Amino acid sequence: MERRLSRDLRPLGTAAAVALVSCSLLALAVGLGWLGADVGRGANFCEAARDGVVRQPANTFSNLGFVAAGLLVAWQAGLPLGMRRDLATAYACLVVVLGPGSAAMHATQTAVGGRLDMGSMYLVASFIAAYAAMRWWRRGPGFLAALFAAGVLLCLLVGEYGGTLPVLLYAGNVAFAVLLLTGVALEVLIRRRGETRLPLAPAGLALGCMLVAFAVWNASQHGWCDPDSLLQGHAVWHLLGAAAAYLLFRAYAGETVRAAQPVGPAVRR
């Protein structure tokens, strides 16, 4: 009789606590005006500002996709995986935080909300690049933590540039994209080295979701725009981003170590 695997519920409990605290704080901040005055931050993402408490409802509530994705990651992190459980839990929490972080900007259109939005993006992108770097250089979690902190700090510094850029708009978006591309490049190098392998299906789907999401993100600012509709391209960007974050975890979880190959010709006895 096959023995069922026992599930550790601590990752889910941790991520659920992060979701409850972060979403509750956001609700209080929006309701009580803690984030400041509406300065139109995020108004370039098409959806018209409503008169209610939540300025952009579609672009705000679509961020629940990140919370759901993070909780799903945490639920599956309770089983044995090809990824360390503590790192899977950390990744789940970062994906959860991406939801209220992004929603803070769309719900309030404040400058502080914009910083929370960008900051949450920096956290996830820095983890993706640092996790790939840790495995490429065969180092431990301490190395990941140092690179993660360096990546976030770098993004914060780059994001201080106040000018508008073509396509990506903000310098912070450029830093975010560079970290993601660094993670992708390192994953390709790790695969080519051949010691471990991420499953191609979820990894490829994650990359595909991000590419489609970026195309939608760009189109929603250049033509595909009905400001009064609840169907918003930027909301689709959020949902596709959440799907990509979950699929990337499925790739991490399915990483396998390849069997050592024999050296030299086989010796017959």
Structural description of this entry:
The protein has 269 residues and is mainly α. 64% of the residues lie in helices and 1% in strands. The protein has 9 helices and 2 strands. α1 packs parallel to α4 (85-108) and α5 (111-136) runs parallel beside α7 (171-193). The radius of gyration is 20 Å and the shape is globular. The two termini are 40 Å apart.
Q: What structural keywords apply?
A:
1% strand; two-stranded antiparallel ribbon; 269 residues; globular; mainly alpha
Q: Quick recap of the structure?
A:
The protein is mainly alpha-helical and 269 residues long. The chain contains nine helices and two strands.
Multimerization status: single chain
Order the strands across the largest sheet as they lie in space: 1-2
What general outline do the C-alpha atoms trace?
Answer: globular
In which range does the helix fraction lie? Answer: 55-70%
